[in-house]
Amino acid sequence: MDVSIIIVNYNTKEITNNCIESIFKYTSGLSYEVILVDNASIDGSADYFEKDKRILLVKSDTNLGFGNANNLGYKYAKGKYLFFLNSDTLLLN
Fold first, then answer.
1. Which of 51, 72, 74, 89 is most buried (CB neighbours < 10 A)?
2. Which residues pair with 60 in a beta bridge?
3. CB 20 within 8 A of CB 36
4. How many CB atoms lie within 10 A of CB 86?
5. What is the pLDDT of residues 3-49, one digit of tens each?
């Protein structure tokens, strides 16, 4: 595994979904995994992303904050490199 992409979500289902879709659309030439840490969202994010088998969803029972949620995602990472990506980012090419 080349890269572990770690994204933190807190009640931003649509923005996070757009971010994830852009990763799968524009990333090629390397092996990667997408780890999504849900920070106890109440907007249905966890249920929505649980259905996406392309990603690893890590659900937190409490809002850990951005830094601690990234650290939680890191515990599941298998990549040689880590890419901490904000959920409001869109890859363009």
1. 72
2. 39
3. yes
4. 12
5. 999 999 999 999 999 999 999 999 999 999 999 999 999 999 999 99
